Amino acid sequence: MKAYWRLTWAQLLLFARNKNTIIWSLLLPIFMMLALGTFLGDGTGTDQFQLNVTVADEDDTSYSRNLVKELSKTGGLNVSETSRASGLAQVKQGNAEVFVLLKKGMGKRLSTEGKAGKSEPLVELYLDQSNPAVAEIGSTVIREEVDRFNKEAVNYQPPVETKLVNIQTRPLGYIDFLVPGILSLMILSNNLNGVAATIASWRERGILRRMQGTPLKSSTFIAGQITARVLLNGLQAVTVLLVGYFVFDVHVYGSWMLLLMFILLGTLTFMSIGFIIASLARTPESASPIAGLVTFPMIFVGGIFFPVRDLPGLLQPLVKAIPIGYLTDALRGVMNEGATLPQLWVPATVLGAWLLISFTIATLTFRWDVK
Amino acid sequence: MIRVRNLVKRYGGIRVVDGVGFDVAEGEVFGLLGPNGAGKTTTMEMIEGLRKPDSGEIQLFGVDGVREPDKMKEMIGVQLQSTALFDHLTAEESILLYGSFYRQMRPVDELLKAFDLEEKRKTLVKHLSGGQRQRLAIALAVVHDPRVIFLDEPTTGLDPKARRDLWRIILTLKDEGRTIFLSTHYMEEAEQLCDRVAIMNAGQVIDLDSPSGLIRQLASDSVIEFALEKKAMEVSLRQLRGVKEVRQDEGLILLLTNDLRGTLSELIRTADQEELALSGLRTRTATLEDVFLERTGKRLTEK
Fold this sequence. Notes:
The structure holds two protein chains of two kinds.
Chain A: H1 2-17, H2 19-39, E1 51-57, H3 62-73, E2 77-81, H4 84-93, E3 98-102, H5 106-111, E4 123-127, H6 132-154, H7 174-204, H8 207-212, H9 218-248, H10 256-280, H11 284-301, H12 316-321, H13 323-337, H14 345-365
Parallel strand pairs in A: 1-2, 1-3
Antiparallel strand pairs in A: 3-4
Helix pairs in contact in A: 1-9, 2-7, 2-9, 7-9, 7-10, 7-11, 7-13, 9-10, 10-11, 10-13, 10-14, 13-14
Chain B: E1 2-11, E2 14-24, E3 29-33, H1 40-47, E4 55-60, E5 63-64, H2 69-73, E6 76-79, H3 91-99, H4 108-114, H5 130-141, E7 148-152, H6 160-175, E8 179-184, H7 187-193, E9 196-201, E10 204-209, H8 211-217, E11 222-227, H9 234-238, E12 243-249, E13 252-257, H10 260-273, E14 279-285, H11 288-296
Parallel strand pairs in B: 3-8, 3-9, 6-7, 7-8
Antiparallel strand pairs in B: 1-2, 1-4, 4-5, 9-10, 11-13, 11-14, 12-13
Helix pairs in contact in B: 5-6
């Protein structure tokens, strides 16, 4: 027991004194979050959608001016007035997503309460259809606004009212997606790569062999490593979460206990895989590349920077087989959706199974000395 | 007290240790002397329980080292060839860490004092000098007050002063009544420290005795070294009084003799008669190096 505490403490001291560990394992995720969060997200995480709309008001009546005003007030629309030619050009150049042309005669038509009968359209929408999502949203938002004007003009009372119920109560942006991903990446690389490199180099330098010359049991040694790394990872995870919260307003909507449980599960799983790699590698020089070879694809198929569903179908079986995606899903579930353990039983079970198998292999293959 | 019989270890079909056997008595400094690759480290590591012998028996204080390595490890202290320490721990932290692996441990202050590391208590291992590191490595080997200490080439890579400091420490450990089992490829070290020396070559113990005993076994106890311009004298050199053997080694001629005075005076007279200049002439008593050379035809350390 004394040896266990001493080993844990020694490992924590080694972490604290090895500046590379601190820089790479803590500053890198935070830097990544700041960089990606600032450039890709918009920082606040709340107004996730901004549509640039250019309007050319050729009608220039109180009605048309009112419509422009209403559009400007609509959330998510960034409206600027311009001429027909410049508005069109801006859409073509990609500076604006939508161009709205209010043709002459619109005010007149509305003032006559639409009794003039059907004729040519007086509001024209110009959209870039190559971006269907934007085109869809743009046209819907503006159509609705025009529709409201129409209905007001004819004093239309809808027989059936639609009530809008917002089911997404939390404003989520890319940064909310990113932070759990970065957490997952950190757990992966710290443990898998960290353990593989450290243990292989200790073995090479004879540090492990020296310990083998004492009555120390390998299980005690491994337990000390695990404890120290779990503590370090917990600390790092909390730091990343705090930075996420204070800088980017990223909330943990689910249970902190559950989140920490998944962090623990991930830490233990990837640490076990790290131990296996350290045992299989013949030299410490080969341990790091092997660990890199294992980690690198995991970063891409693990849903860390973009959702797994965006990956080609060919890769989906791989995604289903490896643990990283499940960890990312679980962290995201707890943080973004407030998911509970019963809802996350799939990732919990898969990670648990990975842990059980890899830990067993790790203990069976562990050796103090160089082959 | 340490009893080793017929120890064999093969690596890839080669017998690295080939039937080694000896007894080590309590309180003595026992040395394994041999060149690199003779099988010294492998032999030691098998006795320390770090490697499993392919066959043979090892007993320490009646404990079977092959079957009960854990029980044995509590009784022994080891220092390995590579100074395997954590660079980012201090001397004190290292002692506390290794001490925690044993049931009992000596006070840190006592150890730091005994190994002259008091001022380095808070210094990281990576900032220690080679000699200080090696002293710390040995302090870690005695952290649990063991009766036997294994030191694998403890002074390799140290400068002469650090080496002598370490010799002093090893002799102190001996005075405390501990048994010391060390390996070395420095014959001077073996002569200075060891009560008995086992000479190892190619996986076998080829001789075992006290250093002086080994030297006494030599047919000749003195060596005359010099350089000659011509080698024509060689035949007559062998006929000088007392000469047992003539060797050539890197341009030097070595006369191995059991009558230093007689050989030397005849050598000088002969050189005068033949008008030959003897350059770099010196004499010395035979060393373990000569013992090794005589037994194996090889030098202990490559020059």
